[in-house]
Fold this sequence. Notes:
Layout: E1 2-7, H1 21-38, H2 43-47, E2 50-61, E3 70-80, E4 85-93, E5 99-111, E6 116-118, H3 122-130
Antiparallel strand pairs: 1-3, 2-5, 3-4, 4-5, 5-6
Amino acid sequence: MHTIEIKVRGYHLDLYGHVNNARYLEFLEEARWGYFEDTIGLDRFVASGLAFVVVNININYRRPAYMNETIQVQTWVKSVSNRSAVVAQRIVLKETDALISEADITFVLLDEKQQKAITLTGEIRTALESLIESAPQPA
C-alpha cells in the first residue's frame, strides 16, 4: 500500500466549511500519480505512447474533512483483468484513522496513437499484478 499525506487548506473547502466532494477526486488523483511513479514508473509508458485512462470511479463519502486536518490517501491495486485494472483508494484522518472516503477506480491502458484501449499483457500486466493487495485493515 502506498500512502500520501495532504493537509486540508481553505481553498479545499466549500460553503459548508468542509472539503468539497469534487476535491476528493483531486486528492485521489494526486495519490494515484504518486503511487504509479513510486512503483512501476510512468516515464517509460508516456514515452511509448501509452497512458492510464480512468473509465469509472465509484466513491463513497463517510465523514467530512475540515480545515487544518491532515488526511492520508492510501492506494493499492485491487485487481487486474484482460482489458482493465482497479485501483482501490481510501482517505483516512491521519490522527485517528477515521474513514473519510473510499473509492474504486477502474482504468484501461490507452494506446494514444490508435486512440483505443489495449489488452493488458506482458511487462505492464506483470507489473500491475505484482502490486495487487487486499484492503488494509483498520488500525
